[in-house]
From TrEMBL:
Signal sequence, renumbered to the chain: none
EC supergroup of this enzyme: ligase
NCBIfam families: PRK05710.1-4
Encoding gene per record: gluQRS
Species of the source: Sphingomonas quercus
Domain Glutamyl/glutaminyl-tRNA synthetase class Ib catalytic: 18-295
Name of the protein this chain belongs to: tRNA glutamyl-Q(34) synthetase GluQRS
Length: 304
């Protein structure tokens, strides 16, 4: 497959200035877990004399809200975090995602999927069905003429993981500042969606392309995204993109021991601000938490 480079600069990641990013989705207000991740990415870049970028992952039109974008900017400014360059919104990059998907289609590495969630759930629960929630491959088996006849129906585009692995190097690796060198195993997630029925790109494709285009050298994010990195490494290989260094940090937990999450009602930064919280004290507390985790081996150990 022809290598395709979508980076703004021409320097390889190993020689480029350190660049990190914080990339929230505007589906709710930021909470302490977000602040922790944003602060780690910010401090990592600043310590190296590099760039810290802000990206808004707003391609989910059913859940993203303009007021939440404003809230993200307000919350980060309240914490005293400053970013370089203008804020990037993924809705400004739809043509780039479509081009990349087109290249993968031309290479025969993706296929349209017409299944509904109920179709997938039924197939997965059938006797001898696939373990867990992996897509069972129903539409992968459709004949070319049957696919063509149905393209007018709502459909997603899935990566044919077997074909993609055959088109990429036999072994792929990525480096993590806390976890070390990891061999990518994207096949564990099956035929993932690269473009949804209701969105022009999935998180996997958009995030991978945007990191390359903005010259991100170091991806600082929570350890809940380690598995996603296996897929991103494969996409980098297929599209000829550079591989950044990764730093997957431990997640902050609440008093109940569960990780902080929007869906569980984690206290928002906006609520803390309204209650009169001191942002400087909050940032100092988060930095102390990062140092404590690093000293006891729990991470994040963010090495240059």
């Amino acid at each position: 497959m022809t290598a395709w480079t979508a980076t703004r600069g021409q320097e390889p990641a190993s020689r480029a200035p350190v660049t990190t990013r914080f990339a929230p989705s505007p589906t709710g207000r930021l909470h302490l877990g977000h602040a922790f991740s944003a602060l780690l990415a910010h401090d990592f870049a600043r310590a190296a004399g590099g760039r810290f970028l802000l990206r808004i992952e707003d391609i989910d039109g059913t859940r993203s809200r303009p007021e939440h974008i404003d809230g993200i900017v307000e919350d980060l400014a309240w914490l005293g975090l400053r970013w370089d360059e203008s804020v990037l919104r993924q809705t400004e990059r739809l043509a780039a995602y479509a081009e990349a998907l087109g290249r993968l289609r031309a290479a025969g590495l993706v296929y349209p999927c017409f299944c509904t969630r109920s179709d997938i759930a039924a197939a997965a629960s059938a006797p001898h069905g696939p373990a867990g929630a992996l897509y069972p491959g129903t539409c992968r088996a459709l004949a070319p003429d049957a696919r063509a006849a149905r393209l007018g129906e709502p459909h997603a585009w899935r990566l044919d993981i077997a074909a993609a692995r055959a088109a990429a190097p036999a072994r792929l690796f990525f480096d993590d500042g806390r976890l070390g060198r990891i061999e990518a195993r994207p096949e564990r997630q099956g035929d993932i969606v690269l473009a949804r029925k209701d969105a022009p790109s999935s998180y996997h494709l958009a995030a991978t392309l945007d990191d390359a285009w903005t010259g991100v050298t170091d991806v600082v994010r929570g350890e809940d995204l380690v598995e996603a990195t296996h897929v991103h490494r494969l996409l980098q290989a297929l599209l000829g993109l550079p591989t950044p260094r990764y730093h997957h940090h431990r997640l902050l937990a609440g008093a109940d021991g569960r990780r902080l999450a929007k869906r569980d009602g984690a206290p928002s930064l906006a609520g803390m601000r309204a209650a009169g919280a001191d942002p400087a004290a909050l940032v100092a507390e988060l930095r102390a938490r990062a140092i404590s985790l690093a000293s006891d081996g729990e991470g994040p150990t963010l090495r240059q």
